Amino acid sequence: FSQLLDPSTYSIKNVIKSDKSLERVKNEIVPYSKLKGIDNTRNAVAISKTISKVVEIKNDFNLKSFPFDKQTLVLEIFDQDWSADARLIDLNSKTFKVLDAFINKDDIPGWQKNKYALDYITENQIGMMDGEYAHGFKLTIELERKYGYYIFKVIFPIILILTVCWSVVWVDPRELEARLTITIVCLLSLIAYNFVIDADMPKLEYLTIMDYVILISYIYATIPNFTAILSFNLIGKNKLLHNKIENYEKKFGLPSYIIIVFIIIIVNSSNNPEHASSLLTLFKP
Q1: Number of other residues whose CB lies within 10 A of the CB of residue 16
Q2: What φ, ψ does residue 276 adopt, rounded to 5°?
Q3: Nearest to 188 by CA among 225, 134, 240, 141
Q4: For residues 282 and 80, which has the higher predicted lDDT (pLDDT)?
Q5: What is the DSSP-derived secondary structure letter of residue 167?
């Protein structure tokens, strides 16, 4: 068997790290008559080599729709030693059965596997002559983030803090100290809460949906402070303007915050549709 070609000579593109300690190799030789149940193949054998390993592969992610985003993982594997003229990689029915089982298995925490695509590809690799190509395949997997955690444990508590903060508009404007106590405590609570959830936020050079929501929340947490002081000073000076400010706060304060959050989601889903989750398709114009 020393003359047999090793089918395991392959290369994976964009590998950052390969954990050799977790690599497992299994060689197996089975009589073909036993494998297929055909007596006239007693002199034939089926030789298989199974390799399992853990590798870290670089993929480009677009997180502008975070936490309502979907991402595409790409894995490209090529025959390392032979060109397409000498040897071809075979994708058979067993390949697709394994991939179907993988897609249906919920084993990636925080992510849902939507679908996959598997295609043959060729590439002129380093060391090959002009017109010579390595044969391989490209596996594309679409993942969608499970956003329930971020809705119920991040966004909802922020909205709750803002609701308490804007409840001061129903406190008597003459009670300036009571109003400022509530608004400042809410602002400090929002800052403290953002420190708590900071570990769950991606560190990026651009803003995501979550970043916009947090920034808008800070702005809306400070507005009641200034309007409380302004209303207090206008009580004896300009009653008409004072009443107008109070009415605007009650009618448009918190609702305008909710509307702006929805506008952020709509604009983001329109500008970044290929990386927006199925939830955002509800808001596409």
Answers
A1: 8
A2: -95, 140
A3: 225
A4: 80
A5: G
The answer to whether 258 touches 202, Cβ cutoff 8 Å, is no
Residue 158 makes CB contacts below 8 A (sequence gap 6+) with: 190, 193, 213, 214, 217
DSSP 4: S
- pLDDT tens per residue, range 92-103: 888 899 999 999
What is the DSSP-derived secondary structure letter of residue 6? Answer: -
CA 64 vs CA 70, 80, 142, 158: distances in Å: 10, 36, 16, 20
Of 68, 53, 59, the C-alpha closest to 275 is: 68
Nearest partner of 132 among 119, 142, 122, judged by Cα: 122
> For 255-270, what is the mean pLDDT?
89
Q: Is residue 123 exposed (0-12), middle (13-18) or buried (19+ Cβ within 10 Å)?
A: middle
Cα–Cα dist 69/53, whole Å: 28
The angle at the Cα of 204, spanning 198 to 208, to the nearest 5 degrees, equals 80
pLDDT of the residue at 29: 82
